[in-house]
Amino acid sequence: MRQVFYSSKFKRNLxxxxxxxxxxxxxxxxxxxxxxFHPSLETHKLHxxxxxxxxxxxxxxxxxxxx
Length: 67
Fold this sequence. Notes:
This protein is mainly alpha-helical. It has helices at about 10-15, 20-35, and strands at about 45, 55. It has one domain (about 10-55). It has two helices and two strands. It has a two-stranded antiparallel sheet.
């Protein structure tokens, strides 16, 4: 069984994110747990003391308008 760890900083930052980002994260997390190397996750190994761990990417777009 896979274990997923999140830093306290990550947890705090996630709470501050807009709902659509939280939703995207939950979808990606679910996919990571079932298929950690799905292409949409852009799974990658971490470096340094976390080199034994994997991470996945959750992206969202920021939209701004200029008047």
